[in-house]
Amino acid sequence: MDSLALVILNYNGQSFLAKFLPAVLAHADGHPVYVADSASTDGSVAFLRAHFPTVRVIELARNEGYAGGYNRALDYIRTHEAPFDYYALINSDIDVTPGWLSPILSVMASSPTVAACQPKIRSYQQRDLFEHAGAAGGFVDWLGYVFCRGRVFATFEADQGQYDDNRPVFWATGACLFVRAKVFHQTGGFDASFFAHMEEIDWCWRVQRLGYEVWTCGQSVVYHVGGGTLPKSNPHKTYLNYRNSLFMLYKNWPADGRLWLRIFLRLVLDGLSSLLFVKVGQWRDVWAIIRAHFAFYAHLPQLNQQRRALRQQQTHAVSLFPRSIVWSYFGQGKKTYRDIVDNRK
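The line above is the sequence of Glycosyltransferase family 2 protein; the predicted C-alpha cells follow.
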C-alpha cells in the first residue's frame, strides 16, 4: 500500500497543469498523482489524457469549489482507489522543488497526533519572498483575523532562513496541504458551505479541538503563483474571505459569553477596512463586504447547529493569538511576525 496520494484540484487550469504538473510528476518520488477536475470547460481532461497518461484523472460532476471539490475527490480515492495514510492537496499553480516531499512526510510520521503540515510557500514571481497564501505557517488572532510567519497583511518578508524550523502552527495553507487521511475523513473533511477560502483554517481549528496538531516544515519549499482561480482583486474572493472568516469564528469560538462582542468588533473593523477599497474606487469590493455580513446573519441557524455539534465533540481547548493583529500592524507599526509576537517591543 502506498502511503501518500498527491491530489491536484483543477478548474479551467489547463495552462497551469501544462506548466507545473511535469515538476510534480518528476518529484513525486513514485507516489501516485491524481487530478480531480471540477467540470472544467477548457479541455483540461482531454489535455491530461493526451499528455499525462500516468496521471489518474477524477472527473467531478460540477465545480463545488476547493472545499466541496476536495471532499468529493478524496472520498472517491478512498472508496474506488486505495487507502492512503496521507493526502497532499496541491494547487495547480504550485511549483514544487526536488526533495520537497520527504521532510514533510517525516514530520507527518513523527506522531499520530500530527494531522496536517505545509512546506514554506514562496512567491513564484518574486522567488526570495514569502507568498500570501500560508508563507511559513499561520495563526489566528482573537478577532478571527489571520496572519503568517513571513506574511502579515501586505508585508512580505524575504526568506533568509528565519523560519526554517519545523514547529506547530495554528493553520496550514490549502495551497499545499498535507493531511492525515484518517483524520480528514473522521472530521468529514472541509466545510463545503465555505466553497473556497479559509476552509482549511476552519478545518485546522476543528482538528485541534480534537487534540490533533498542525505543523509547518521549514526544510521543504514550494513556489506559488497565487490567484490562479480567483484573482486577488476579484470581489467574489473578497466576499468569500470576509464571510468565511465570520463563519469560522462563530463556529469555533469557545463558549465564554464574549462571542458577540467579537462579532460586533469585526463589524466595525470590517467596515473600516472597506474604506481602503473606497480610496481606490473598488466599490464592488465594498459591496462584497456588506453582502458577506448579511450572508453571515442569514446562515446563523446552520452555524448554530454546527457550533453545538462541535462543542459536543471537543476534547481539547485551543488558544488563539491573544492580541489584535490589526492593532499591532496598523496601530503599532509592527509589520513582521517576529515583531508582533515579541510583546516587549
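Note on the example: The chain is about 40% helix and 20% strand. The longest helix spans residues 259-279.
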